[in-house]
Design a protein that fits this description.
This protein has 142 residues and is an all-alpha fold. The chain contains six helices and no strands. The chain starts with a helix and ends with a helix.
């Protein structure tokens, strides 16, 4: 067992298992954020409570929050692909270097914000938020 612990391929497999679990967890968090946004809008529409503009701002914040979660998830997905190449024997990769790799390529503030916005605009992220904000806009005209 001790030999396996120091084997880079074994370490890569263990890292892959842990990161895969984290990626799946981020997917759940994204779904929870969508559910909260949907519940807020449904409550606002059914009870006529709150300002539509304020509610739309809250939905936009939740949308951006999901974009941030998806950015974190995409970084883990990139590392997973590297680990899969290593495990398959296609590419040498040092295991347990997630943060060192990210730190070496970390963008500045503008780059980080661009990543967040880019992730927020992915169709699978944007889908419910655009519809929810449109419903709130319709509410303003009724």
């Amino acid at each position: 067992m001790a030999d396996q612990e120091w084997d880079p391929r074994f370490a890569a497999v263990k890292e892959w298992e842990l990161l895969q679990t984290q990626v799946e967890g981020y997917e759940k968090h994204g779904l929870y954020i969508k559910l909260v946004a949907t519940a807020l809008v449904a409550t606002a529409l059914l009870t006529a409570a709150g300002s539509s503009i304020l509610m739309a701002a809250m939905i936009a914040l939740l949308w951006l929050q999901e974009g941030i979660w998806k950015t974190f998830q995409s970084r883990l997905e990139a590392r997973l692909l590297e680990l899969e190449d290593m495990i398959a024997g296609d590419k040498p990769v040092a295991p347990c270097q997630l943060h060192n790799q990210w730190q070496a390529t970390r963008p500045g503030l503008v780059g980080l914000v661009q990543e967040y916005v880019k992730q927020s605009l992915r169709p699978t992220v944007a889908y419910p938020y655009v519809a929810l904000i449109a419903l709130l806009a319709l509410r303003c005209w009724w």
